[in-house]
Amino acid sequence: MKKSLLLFWLTLPVLGGVYHLTAGEFHMQMDQIGWHLRAGRNAVQKTEWHRASREFQKALELVPDDQDQLRRDIRLQLAQAQIHSAGLPDANEDLKKLLTEVTADDVQPVDSALQARVRETLAESQYYLAWLMRLEGVAREEWLPELESARQNYRLLAEQAQAVGDARSQQQQQENLEASIRLEQMAIDDLQGLPIPKPCQSCCSKCRSRRPGQKPAQKPKDGRGASAGPPADGSGS
Known about the structure:
Blueprint (H helix, E strand, L loop, with lengths): L1 H44 L3 H14 L5 H16 L4 H15 L9 H24 L4 H24 L3 H19 L2 H5 L11 H7 L27
């Protein structure tokens, strides 16, 4: 008994050292993540989108496997930067996965604010991707689902804003919804006459390489010639 007790006390310093070493490594890792996040957000404020994307990507690579909430938040920030740095197709794909994850029934606790941010960013990417696909002559049956999904997301966001009495957000999402409708109805000649939104710039080759051999889109018969305009937040102008 005495021997066992002695061995127990002798191992305590070793166990304590392992604990502090492990905890220290975790805190160092989190400090590195925080450094990259601050650098990325600073780049966003300066509209240095490519640098922001690199910093958020570095932060994401350091996130421990058990930090799901942190990983999702960084993925959202990365997607937002990618939309403005020639990474629109990649952002669109990951945002779809991210929305599925944050709205899953088994995700607890429910983060309504994160869900809304992911949904709004996804809708923005879908809107600009549909715009870009139309300019590239992609068939209607390929760009229309993106635009329809954007409309559904904007409509849901407007309804949610109305439910909580957020009149400003409701108006913004309603304007985004109307812009999506105009984009579908606009004649291709009128669309080509508009300035290309910034999120669509430098993305043409990427989108074309993902959809080889597409047939040119037919000119919509119901085009009204009205300006589609960017989403109401003006991020694409």
